[in-house]
Design goal:
3-stranded antiparallel beta sheet; 99 residues; alpha+beta; 2 helices; 7 strands
């Protein structure tokens, strides 16, 4: 993890090999998935059905061509939601990082 300060406010700028700009408040839902069509749509639909609003979205690739998805949210996701996300096709991991 790497961070910096922008305009006097601390920010996370990298998690693993994934570049991201995130404020140090609330948290980030971090998903690691296979880079195949339809994954982002399934994630958005799943979160919408759970009443979870996507406040921001970042995509990126690492050397192994996995795509990462993250969105900031003020409240923590229940473990059962994370467990269900991990069961979606092509999702390799789901974590909620709290800052």
């Amino acid at each position: 993890m790497a961070g910096t300060v922008f305009g006097g406010a601390p920010r996370i700028v990298q998690i693993d090999a994934f570049p991201i700009v995130a404020e140090l408040s609330g948290g980030i839902l971090m998903l690691r998935n296979q880079d195949v069509p339809g994954v982002i749509g399934r994630i958005g639909t799943f979160l919408g059905e759970k009443g979870i609003n996507i406040a921001g979205l970042r995509l990126g690739r690492t050397e192994v061509a996995d795509r990462h998805f993250a969105h900031q949210r003020g409240q923590r996701h229940p473990e059962n939601v994370l467990a269900q996300l991990r069961k979606l096709p092509n999702i390799m991991d789901a974590q909620y990082l709290v800052f």
